[in-house]
Amino acid sequence: MNRGFLQSTSNLVTCLLQTPPAELLGLALLRQSTPAPGGWFPTDVPLAQVKQAAVEFIHYGGRCREAAHTLTALRPVPLLVSCPEFGL
């Protein structure tokens, strides 16, 4: 058992707040390019970059699902409140 990593909810919050935002190629491409009038996708981006960005989004979504699944498997954290009914 690793007792030194996360011992409280405040440690978990601190850890999550220190996580940098994901730098995804698709978001960078959207910031750099302007879609054609009436269009949603920029037309001046090479197809290879669009493909790479799409694959990156799919993999990022998979990693997010895995992280969410891992978080659901965490043990409960005892409440530090004086009202026992609050935890119910």
As residue ranges, the low-confidence spans are none
Into which percent range does the helicity of residues fall?
Answer: 40-55%
> What is the beta-strand fraction?
under 5%
CA radius of gyration is: 21 Å
End-to-end CA span: 27 Å
Count of discrete alpha- or pi-helical segments spanning 4 or more residues? 3
List its salient traits.
single chain, 88 residues, mainly alpha, 3 helices, 49% helix, elongated
3D architecture notes:
The structure is a single chain. The protein is mainly α. The chain has a domain at 21-35 and 42-74. Helix content is 49%, strand content 0%. It has helices spanning 9-17, 25-32, 47-72. The longest helix is centred in the C-terminal third of the chain and has 26 residues, at 47-72. It is elongated, with a radius of gyration of 21 Å.
